[in-house]
Write a sequence for this structure.
């Protein structure tokens, strides 16, 4: 074939060349980002348990198969063993094993086929009871600190019972144990567990009740996902501790219980305090109590010594009181003597002052007798002088007396307002006037008025 320029251009590289490792890494990243975690159903085949603990197998159906791997950490939490031919539902991450370029599924969790419906029923029941308030923290009761008797609801053949009994025997051998036997798996197990719990509640011979079972699949633990069982736990008169399955297993009974432990052994540890720890605590309290008693006694003895020093014989106390009274009497006598002397001294001083201030009545009496004639003479002369002055003043007033003027024939004219008329011009014709004489007065009417002066 003839090579043309156009064919040469198509063969020229138009993008960078990448390695196989980079290609596989990009493919893995694209797969993991494109496919979220999902559930895949199929049959197990080519199952291999590696020495590392990882589990390798294939999931297949009638048309195809896919490689799967479950790493050790996930496999240990499974709670049951995978087998060839099992039909399971696996929660997987779609990825690529870069080293070999193999498309595979990383299994995060697995359940036997049909468990999906059970799990949906479990979630729906849990939501309904939670909405009803059956799981609220306000309903939870505290566990007794020092239980005397512990009840166990489980199967007598269960390995969980042996674990619980071993733990209780090791931690609290003094605690009595009552077993309420009941099946914990299979048809009708939930109803029998309810009956056992109600029996323990009615008998009330225990302080706390442990409901336990070993690990298993969701189907194995389904008896503990019963509504009646949850209500029986909440109605139980005894606080209930559950230890069902493994740490990752959660049942409806766990949510309804007053306390949930991850395993039956942990439930036993939670229900019963460790005897050695209690003994150690008691020893600490005993030492502390002894120390406090010793300190209290020492303080009381010290106080007693102090009181003993203050305590005196009655005769000594009487002597001390007698001396005290004698001293008081002596001080009182001295004070009275000093007060009397001071009073006498003050009285003498006041007497001297009074004698100095007392008047000489005899001398003053003689002086008064000598002054009396002089006073009488002076008074007589003063009276004579005043009588002469009075006669002169009376004569002067007699000349000014209006009655004397009226006696000589004069009169006083007043208008109707009682005002003396001095000018004829102030009168009007027909005006009434009063004329006062030396004896009596008369009313007159003005006939006419002449304002010119009248010569007498």
């Amino acid at each position: 074939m003839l090579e043309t320029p156009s064919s040469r251009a198509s063969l020229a590289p138009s993008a960078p060349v990448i390695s196989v490792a980079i290609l596989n890494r990009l493919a893995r990243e694209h797969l993991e980002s494109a496919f979220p975690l999902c559930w895949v159903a199929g049959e197990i085949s080519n199952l291999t348990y590696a020495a590392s603990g990882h589990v390798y197998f294939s999931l297949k159906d009638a048309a195809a198969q896919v490689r799967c791997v479950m790493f050790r950490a996930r496999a240990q939490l499974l709670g049951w063993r995978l087998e060839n031919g099992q039909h399971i539902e696996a929660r997987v991450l779609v990825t690529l094993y870069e080293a070999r370029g193999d498309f595979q599924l990383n299994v995060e969790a697995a359940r036997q086929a049909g468990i999906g419906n059970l799990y949906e029923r479990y979630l729906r029941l849990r939501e309904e009871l939670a909405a009803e308030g059956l799981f609220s923290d306000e309903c939870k009761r505290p566990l007794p600190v020092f239980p005397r008797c512990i009840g166990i609801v489980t199967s007598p053949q269960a390995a969980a019972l042996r674990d619980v009994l071993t733990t209780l025997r090791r931690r609290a051998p003094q605690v009595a144990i009552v077993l309420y036997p009941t099946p914990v798996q299979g048809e009708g197990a939930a109803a029998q567990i309810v009956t056992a719990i109600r029996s323990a509640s009615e008998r009330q011979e225990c302080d706390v009740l442990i409901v336990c079972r070993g690990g298993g699949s969701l189907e194995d633990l389904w008896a503990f996902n019963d509504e009646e069982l949850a209500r029986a736990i909440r109605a139980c008169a005894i606080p209930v501790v559950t230890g069902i399955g493994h740490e990752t297993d959660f049942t409806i009974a766990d949510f309804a219980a007053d306390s949930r432990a991850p395993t039956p052994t942990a439930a036993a540890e939670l229900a019963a305090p460790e005897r050695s720890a209690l003994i150690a605590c008691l020893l600490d309290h005993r030492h502390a109590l002894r120390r406090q008693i010793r300190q209290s006694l020492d303080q009381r003895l010290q106080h007693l010594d102090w009181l003993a020093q203050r305590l005196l014989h009655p005769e000594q106390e009487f002597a001390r009181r007698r001396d005290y009274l004698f001293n008081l009497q002596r001080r009182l006598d001295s004070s009275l003597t000093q007060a009397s002397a001071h009073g006498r001294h003050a009285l003498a001083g006041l007497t001297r002052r009074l004698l100095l201030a007392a008047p000489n009545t005899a001398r003053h009496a003689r002086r008064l007798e000598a002054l009396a004639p002089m006073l009488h003479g002076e008074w007589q002369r003063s009276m004579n002088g005043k009588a002469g002055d009075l006669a002169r003043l009376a004569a002067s007033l007699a000349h000014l007396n209006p009655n004397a003027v009226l006696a000589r024939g004069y009169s006083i004219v007043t208008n109707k307002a009682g005002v003396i008329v001095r000018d004829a011009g102030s009168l009007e014709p027909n005006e009434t006037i009063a004329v006062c004489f030396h004896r009596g007065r008369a009313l007159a009417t003005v006939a006419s008025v002449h304002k010119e002066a009248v010569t007498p």
Observations:
- Confidence is low (pLDDT under 50) at residues 1-12.
- The first strand starts at residue 38 and ends at 49.
- The chain has 13 helices and 13 strands.
- The CA atoms of residues 172 and 275 lie 5 Å apart.
